[in-house]
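Figure-free illustration: sequence to structure, shown twice.
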Amino acid sequence: MDRPDLFAPLAFAHGASMKNRLMLAPLTNTQSHADGTLSDEEFHWLTLRAKGGFGLTMTCAAHVQKIGQGFPGQLGVFSDDHLPGLTRLAAAIKAQGSLAVVQLHHAGNRAPKDLIGEAPVCPSDDAETGARALAGDEVAQLVEDFIAAAERAKRAGFDGVEIHGAHGYILCQFLSPALNRREDAYGGSLENRTRIVREIVAGVRARCGEDFLLGLRLSPERFGLQLEDIIAFAGEMLQAPELDFLDMSLWDVFKEPAEEAFKGRSLMSYFTELPRAQVRLGVAGKIMSAAQARQVLADGADYALIGRGAILHHDWPEKAKADPGFTPVALPVTRAHLRAEGLSDPFIAYMNNWPGFVAQDQTEDA
């Protein structure tokens, strides 16, 4: 089949269109202030990517409750105290011709106790992390706080939000039969385990209106998830009239599934073959070169999410447009390179935890 143009516009069922098929992946960067307010460092990191040509610039995971914080220096969206920074950020991203989107997040049992000051929460008691089960009224409050955070993002001027249902955080914990052992309407069957996500999606659309983008991120493996469940739920969400885009985080877009029964074809293919109404499907996972981004479109995705490549090159889209053979600089890279690409020292320290990403010879920075 013909490969779709990476630089063709992409319209959504609601809200504004992307100028191209390249979305900045939501990336943890530990650069915000301790209270969740936006720092100049995080502002610089994100607006530089918007300037570099991404059709949509997404924030890192921004927590919707104070006890939902998953890592130090995380952006917050749980309080009106965050509005001034969020408003500044949204305006600057949009001024570069990029759509501005906040990713809404709650870490659940992955919230460190010493960071949030109390035991973390989970759909069910979790001995491994010391997390306690959410009471019924707390589940309702969690739904409300996701919706309220979306309303706050809209007030700040963002074009939309993405609901983080992936990577073992709280909504993913509800999806996991291993972690969710509830016996109420939010546990048991797949319909019940997905209920909280569907309620948030419906609530955001109802309260944020028609001219507002709404996305959902899912991951299909790890954290006790069953691939069969996630394929079924993704299929349902690709038909959801409230939703604009589904972002599948696959770890590696070209890998085979981990579950033996599903091997023999790419993990991505299980999602690109699903019928979709007006919902756009994107994929993330080690898309580094321009050729790889074109390949995922040829294989059926509507857009590509760029993560590591965008860390290495703030202007990844512009480089890919100028050179169809563009491949990012080889790893590991120096701290000086990352500083030049808009990463602050805390972000570089975080990236140093990724094996093989940051060069360990410090003579260059002496």
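We now fold a second protein in the same way, so the two outputs can be compared directly.
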Amino acid sequence: MFAVLLGLSLSGCSDNGVPDVKVWMDGVRQQTKVSIPTLSPPKKFTPFTYQGKSAVDPYNPGKLAVAFAKLQANSSGMKPDLERRREPLEAYPIDTLKMVGTLQKPGLNYALILADKTLFQVRAGSYIGQNFGMVSGITETAVELKEIVQDASGEWVERKAKLELQETKK
């Protein structure tokens, strides 16, 4: 039995078909042509000459002072009054406030504003919202505001906004 197993295991070591593979590989090597692509010529280098040595230093304190003076001269002078006492509705963003009605007293119109389940009365000149919004007008259907916000350059600009009457469904 041992002799049979030894014979079978040694028969697996024969080179069945190996010479055929070697002949095929030799034929493919002879038929295949090697092609090497040509390299493109290198780009011409042109040196850069720095001309900034003779220019004015951009961080020169005198130049910066002139630039700041021009900036202040061109500014519109509009800015919010940060020293005044804040009103309760200035703690809320304008998009969370709802106009729910109006009141009229002799010579005055009031708007009813709902913020966090609390009802507030506002009149022309009252401040609303977090962008220094001042009530400029009240109609039966809307509260008109003038907000003071900073634009991309840091300048204070005036922007108009409006709170419209929120009608409830019955």
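Summary for the second example: The mean pLDDT is 84.
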